[in-house]
Amino acid sequence: MATHNVTTTWKVKMQFESTNPSGETFLINAAAEHGGEGTGLRPKAMMLSSLAGCSGLDVASLIEKMKLEVDDFKIETIANLTEEHPKVYDAVVLEYHFYGNNLNESKLQRAVDLSVEKYCGVMEMFRQFASIEIKLFFHKN
């Protein structure tokens, strides 16, 4: 079993510095309306980035393995935040946008399906507390 260790250190006011198991660091800060200075990343939004990043890495790997022609792709993540405290995401939509002139839509759908249904551990964690909707968009250059 793998263990990940992360250290998050209070820097000043509402700002923390957090390590990543790779040794990289990043800043976490509250929004100005919550006493922060607006510098750094917001914890809940980082969860959405983690979700998209996890699935995106899967899909990028599968694009390479399937030898697909994709000029670019991005994932737009839209989440509903509940009104009551503790405010949590209860519904998330992931929009996968693929760009290129020779997109194999069925294989790209398969790559996304494999990520969503089999490989992405962050996706599985999100399923514990939120409904997830997946949409694919294919754009010709």
From TrEMBL:
Protein keywords: Oxidoreductase, Peroxidase
Protein's UniProt keywords contain Oxidoreductase: yes
Enzyme Commission number(s): 1.11.1.-
MF (Gene Ontology): peroxidase activity
InterPro entries in the record: KH_dom-like_a/b, OsmC/Ohr_fam, OsmC/Ohrsf
Domain of life: Bacteria
Any one Pfam family match given in the protein's UniProt record, by short name: OsmC
The protein's name in its UniProt record: OsmC family protein
Organism of this sequence: Flavobacterium chuncheonense
